[in-house]
Specification:
It comes from Planosporangium thailandense. By secondary structure, the protein is mainly β. It is built from two helices and eleven strands. Strand 2 and strand 3 form a beta hairpin.
Amino acid sequence: MTTLTADLATLTGSYTLDPSHTRIGFVARHAMVTKVRGAFNEFEGSAYIDGANPALSKATVTIKAASIDTRNADRDGHLRSNDFLAMDQYPEITFVSTAVRQTGDNSFDLTGDLTIKGVTKPVTVPFTYEGAATDPFGNVRVGFEGSVTINRKDYGVTWNAALETGGVLVSEKITLEFEVSAIKNA
């Protein structure tokens, strides 16, 4: 098996996220007993991969807060409101990388500035390189998957409701999930 760096050397270049084959999702505990999963359906992103020196790679993503989708219209409306994402005042969630560190043959830590509701904090997302392929249309595609847990209160997303049985309605910890397919620019 070839090492990631050898494989990546052939993939050096600029890429654009393919929104129809990329998922930017999240998981939150609900009522302390179950999980609610959701995703953002509208986003754009780009990356530069430097196969010879992965530390020079970089990525940016801009997410439309209004595109939040948990498959429940009432809940989505509440998440878009000032109680949570305040999308009218803060229509975008952004991530801009500041560092990339190779941690294994096919693993990387992508560190960057995550901005939610106007609050910017550094976050490091461990990613796994899933491979590369040329699709039937001649596009070179690369795949990466990663996830990280953040505390939503760190970003000013503080609304909650107490439960009669103790605990709260929505967990403070939110897991962000990234399943990325990116197409190499011509």
